[in-house]
Fold:
Amino acid sequence: MTSRGTQDRARGSWLPGTADAHPWRLVLLLLVVPVMLVVAQVARTTNVIFPESAALSFGILIMATPTWRGGRWRHLVSISTSAFLGFALQALHLPVLGAELVALTAVLFVLTFLRSEMFPSISAALLPIVFHVQSIVYPISVTTILVVVLLLDAITARSAPARTIDRHPLEPSLTVTFWLAAVTWLVVGAVLHVPAPALAPPLFVSTMDLIFHPTTWRTLGTRWLIFAMAAATSTVTLVATDSVLIAGMAGYVLALGLVVILRTPYPPALAMGIVPLIVVRSQLDLVAPLLVVGAVVLCGLAWLYGQVMVRLWSKAAASSGL
Structure:
């Protein structure tokens, strides 16, 4: 049997899992995030910034996996609905923890109903609550960005990786494992007043992806390295230039470069260079280490609850005679 890496090299793929994405799609990939940042810079607002736009554009335009190459309408429904839900919960001025738990649980139900692995929906719902975004511009921006990416995907469909429609339902035990890990960290964050960057929504997306698509510790360490370096670069540049556009591009380009150089095709990593742009100035100095701390804690919680779920499943299977 030929390995995936060998197949990629045989087809001349520039990055594992990209399935010979056409050069035009690479050009389009480099337009989505810069346009968002230009709008934010000109309008002088961060309400239009959605860090997962970096992950979405890379995943939908470049990746060849079922997670990103699924039905376009499901992507649109799950993320747009989640963004408006998060904004609505924030607008209701509910207790932060309560709003976070409602948003998290509702999004998981939506993903389960749609049979979709569009995990950035989690970030779309949690972001306005965690970072206190109160403008209707946010969900409109999220929806607009996604529509643009999906239109670009449709227009260049002939040069796209093969579209795989995967309608298998989400594995309940894995979904519960993630929910338990996420709820635990959100509760701990509320009780201990953990700074928002350690609870950054892209971290939850990354953890959900890790639970459903396990990897090696080495690869996990590489991902965390990209998280830290992209966030640190964006933070330092933002402090030095006070420019959302320059800082965002610095973090995004570095993350994209590391993804290619380290041959780690991991869309969620690209969002980390954008996160510092929406963090309050008093927490900027600690963004990079806090992101890594949040990633490590969520990973540890996911592993712990995963072990518990395995034992419970084994006992249930034994008692039922399976």
